[in-house]
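Usage example:
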Amino acid sequence: MINVMAIILLFLALSLLFYVLFGGADFGAGILELRLGKTLRDEQQELMAHAVAPVWEANHMWLILVVVILFMGFPRVYTELSTYLFLPIMAILLGIVVRGCAFTFRHYDTLTPRPQGLYRWAYRLSSLWTAFFLGVIAGAPFLGRISPQGSSFYEVYVASWLNPFCLVLGCFTVAIFALLAAVYLVGEASDGALAALFRRRAVFLAVTVVVLGAVLFAAAEAADVAMTRLFFGNPVCCGVFALATLLLVPFWWCLRSKQGTVAVRALGAGIIACVLLGWFVLQYPVALRYAGGLPPLTFAEAAAPDATQRSLLGALVVGSCLIFPSLIYLLKIFKGETFRRTS
Amino acid sequence: MDNLLAARTQMALSLGFHIVFASIGIAMPFLMALAHLRYLRGGDPVDRDLTKAWSKGVAIFFAIGAVSGTVLSFELGLLWPRFMDHAGAIIGMPFSWEGTAFFLEAIALGIFLYGWERVPRWIHWGSGVVVGVSGVASGVFVVCANAWMNSPAGFDWNGGQPTAIDPWKAMFNPAAATEGLHMIVAAFEAVGFAVAGVHAWLLLKTRLDLHRRAFRLALIVASGAAILQPLVGDVSAKSVARRQPIKLAAMEGHFQTERGASLIVGGWPDAEAMQTRMAIRIPRLLSFLAFGDLDHEVKGLADFPRDQWPPIAPTHVAFQVMVGLGSLLAVLGLFGLAALRFAPDWLDRPQVLRLFAWSTPLGFLALEAGWVVTEVGRQPWIIYGLLRTVDALTPRPGVVYTLGLYAVTYALLAVIAVALLGRQIRLLDRQQGGART
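Running the assembly step on the lines above writes:
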C-alpha cells in the first residue's frame, strides 16, 4: 500500500514544483513590475502582460491540485495547516483574489485610462504579498513551532509562522519567483535591449537567491533547527545541491554572454527545481512538526484509507492524461515561437 | 455574533458569491460557442463581434469565479476542519475530478481567448465548447459532494469515525443525480435570462443588430431551461421527500403528520404555535407532489425532535421564492419560445423587451433561494444525520473578524465587476456604432 501513497506524494511534489515553475513565474512578473527602472517601461509591461495573459489561469490550477491532493489524500495535514496557519492562508487567499481580479480588470477595462493605475498597483503589490506568504506557509511545517496546546492566541496561531526563519523563507520565495520571471522573459523578449534588461535583473536576482539561501540556513540554526546537518547529512540533498551549483556555471555564462535564450530558461528552471527537490527530501517523511516535544505528523499517519488513496491515484492518472496534452498544446501555441525564434 | 453563526454566514457569503460566477462559467461558454458557430457558418461579422463580446464576459467572470473557488477550497478547512477530517477521505473524489475539469477549463479558455487567428478555426471553436463542457463537469462534481452532505453514503459510521470507505458510492450517492441536474438546468436558466435581459435592455436603448441576435439566442437557451426546470425540480423534491422528510416539512411549513396533506403556498410558519399562517392550502396536493399519491402520508415537523429542526421560516420562505420565480420564468419561457416561433416581430416591441429586461435578475434570485433551501434546510447537520455543523467548527476564536474581511472583499469585487460589465457594454456600443439598424 505504501506504493500508492508514494506515487500520490510524487504527484503532490510535481504539482508544487509546477506551481512554482509556472505559477511562480507569473507572480514574479508582477513583482518585477514593482521596479521597472527608467528605460523601456511600456515595452516591459507589454511583454510581461503578453507573456502571462494566456497561461496564468492554467498555471494557477496547480495550486488547486495541491489542495485537492492534500485534503483527499492527507486530510489531517490539510485540517492542521488550515487551523494553525489560518492567518497566512487568509493572507494568500486575499492576495490571490486581488491579484486575479486586478490582472483581468487591467486587461479588459480599457474604456478610460483612469482606473488602470489602481489595477496595476493592486496587481503588483498582491503578487509580492502572495508570494511572500506562500513562502511563510511553506516554512512553518518544517520549522516545528506549531503548538496546538499553546496558552494564548499568539502562541497557537501566530508564533508558528511569525519568526525569522519563515520570514526569510518568504523573502527567498519572492526572490525565486522574480528570478524565474526574469529568466523566462529573457527568452521571450524579441528585442535585444529588452532582453539585456531582464538579463541584468536575472543576474542580480540570482545573487540575491544565493545570499538569501545562506541566510535561510543561518536562520534555521539560530532557531535551533539543525537544518545544515540534516541537509548535508542527506545524500540526495547533497546531490541536488551539487547539481544546482554545477548548473549555476553554465547559467551564469548564458546570462553574461547573451547566448542561448532557450538554455537560459532551462537552466534557471532546473536550478530552482533542484532547490525544491532538496526541500521535499528534507521535509519527507514528515508532513508537519509541532512544538513542545509533540511527535511530528508524518504523511503515512495522515494518509487517507486505502480505498480513498487508490481512487485518488486513479483520478490523478486519468486527470494527467487529459491535462498534460492540452497543457502542452496551450504552451506550444503561445510559447512555441519564443523557442523557435532563437534556435 | 458567536463563532458558529459567523462561520455559517461567511460560508453562505462565499458560496452565494461563487455560485453566480460558477453558473456563468457553466452556461455562458455555450452561448459564446453558439454565436461562434453562427459566425463560422455564415461569416457575418456581427456574429463574430457578439462571440468576442461574450467571450470577454466569460473571461472576466471566469477569473473571478476561479479565485473565489480557490478561496472556497481553502475555506472548508479554515472554517470546518472537523468536517474535512471526517469527509475528506470520503468525498475528496468529486473534488479531485473537479480539479481536473477546472484545469481543463482554464487551459481551453486560454486557447479560446487568445487563439483567434492562431489555431485552426474548428479547434478554436472546439476549445470554446470544452470550456463549457468542463464547466458543466466541474459543477456536477461539486454538487455531488454537496449531495453527499444531504445523503451520506459509501461508508460505515462506527463510533463517530467512518470505516469501510467506498469513494465511488459516496460520489454517486442517492441525491447526486437529481441535485446535479437541478443545478445545471438552473445555471442555464439563470444565465440565459440574465443575458437575454441585459441585451433586451440594451436593445431598448440602442436598437443594435448585435443586441437583437444576442437577445434571441439567449432567450432560446433561457426558455428551454425554464420549461425543463419544473419537471427536474419535481424529481428533486420527490427525492428530498424520501431522503430528508424533515427538510421537506420545513420547506412546506408542514407541522402535523397527515394523509392527503395539503400543499401550503406562501404564508409564514410560526414554530411556536406549530402552524403556518396566512397561507393558501391546496388539499391533498402535497401528498401527490411528494409521493405521487393523493392519500400518501407526509410527515410533519411535530414528529421530529425539536433539536433536529432546521430554521423553519427561512427554509419555507426561500422555497416559496424559488418555486414562485421558477414558475414565473417557465411561463415567460413558454411565451418567449412561442413568440420566437410564431411572431418574432413581437420580440422587438418595447413592452416585451421591458418585460424581459425586468426579468434579468430573477433566475439568479431563484438559484440563490434554492441554495438557501438546500443548505439551511439541512441544518443543524453538516453531514445529514451524522455530524452536526457546530461539531465541525474550527476551534479558533474571532471568526467574525475574518467574516468582516470576506464581506468587504466580496462587496468590493461585486461593485467592481458590475461597473466593469457596464463599461464593457459602453465600449461595445462605441465599437458597434456603425452597425446600427
